[in-house]
Amino acid sequence: MSDSRYEELLAAARRLPRIRMAVVHPCSREALEGALEAARLGLIEPVLVAPQARLAAVAVQCGATLAGSEQVDVPHSHAAAARAVALARAGEVAALMKGSLHSDELLCEVVAADTGLRTARRISHVFVFDVPRYPKPLLISDAAVNIEPDLATKADIVQNAIDLAHALGIAEPKVAVLSAVETVTPKLRSTLDAAALAKMADRGQITGGLVDGPLAFDNAVSLIASKTKGIHSPVAGQADVLIVPDLESGNMLAKQLEYLADAQAAGIVMGARVPIVLTSRADSVQSRVASCAIAVILAQHYRQSPP
Predict the structure, then answer these.
(1) Is the dihedral of CA 176, 209, 97, 108 positive or negative?
(2) Domain coordinates of the chain in residue numbers?
């Protein structure tokens, strides 16, 4: 993130109590350094859930000390995911952070019917982007969890994103539901879903934000584009949240912003009992720390409004 927005995010998180966070299998340099840096900045108390021998070897590799960090010894990554989820269920940690294991391995334990962290809501991932040419943070969902969401799942994705926006201080987020065009077209399912989601918000089935769609990407983020196309909407041209049609389009949009527009990303999984930082192997330490800061803010929000 830009230095100013990154510092603003850290400052907001550091005004809150630090949280105990289970770091799941941090057996790569990037994963361990991200967790330890978040601890050094006063955001989290890391509980490192991993095979102790591998964890110690990674610490030596990156010249880090594990002194003062709680460690939970497990035999492998799958056991790390199961143990971390159990810690969260027991209330011993307030958040989870993915280390060097596959996302599916962790999320499988999170959504397990009897032992996981499910709520009535579908889980979904929300990116929080700092795009240099955009005047405010931009949330994008879902680009990491739900592959081809149906309408009911999209409604949960929208509500999850609105809830995160509230936690981040956006009182009435403007939510643009994206498609390739801004008119309802029966041959494009995404336009039908977008129109239905907008009407669901009108009828109180989705609450807390202004939802409109379908909107193409240009008229969701550009007032000039929306005015040129004659779109009259309180969301068009000034969206806080972009809801993508499916994981493929969302993943491509997110990576294009990051690699072609110098955008900086943080991200969190919503819809579970606790915040879950779902990092990518390519994430920088700064991105991991920013995601931890969001988890701290969200954990405080959950204390006041449990998911």
Answers:
(1) negative
(2) 1-118+272-307, 120-266
CA distance 270 to 122: 8
Residues in Cβ contact with 230 at an 8 Å cutoff, skipping those fewer than 6 apart: none
Question: What angle separates helix 285-304 from helix 3-14, to the nearest 10 degrees?
Answer: 40
Q: How far apart are CA 85 and CA 78, in angstroms?
A: 11
Listing DSSP states for 111-143 in one string gives T-TTTS-B-SSPPEEEEEEE-TTSSS-EEEE-S
* Residue 117, C-beta contacts closer than 8 angstroms, at least 6 positions apart: 85, 88, 89, 110, 111, 272, 273, 274
- Beta-carbon count within 10 A of 17 CB: 11
CATH of domain 1-118+272-307: 3.40.50.10950
Nearest to 158 by CA among 183, 129, 186, 194: 194
Residues near 293 by beta carbon (within 8 Å), at least 6 away in sequence: 9, 10, 12, 13, 38, 43, 266
State the amino acid at position 142 in one-letter form: D
Pairing label, strands 19-24, 44-50: parallel
Q: Does domain 120-266 have CATH number 3.40.718.10?
A: yes
Chain segment 268-301, per-residue pLDDT in tens: 999 999 999 998 877 888 899 999 999 999 999 9
Describe the crossing of helices 29-40 and 285-304 by its angle, rounded to 10 degrees.
50
Interval 156-205: pLDDT, tens: 999 999 999 999 999 999 999 999 999 999 999 999 999 999 999 999 99
CB 278 within 8 A of CB 125: yes
Task: For the sheet with 210-215, list strands across it.
Answer: 70-73, 44-50, 19-24, 95-98, 276-277, 264-270, 124-130, 138-141, 241-243, 174-178, 210-215
Q: pTM of the entire structure?
A: 0.94
Residue 276 tokens read as 């879950």
CA–CA–CA angle 279, 82, 94 (5° rounding): 60
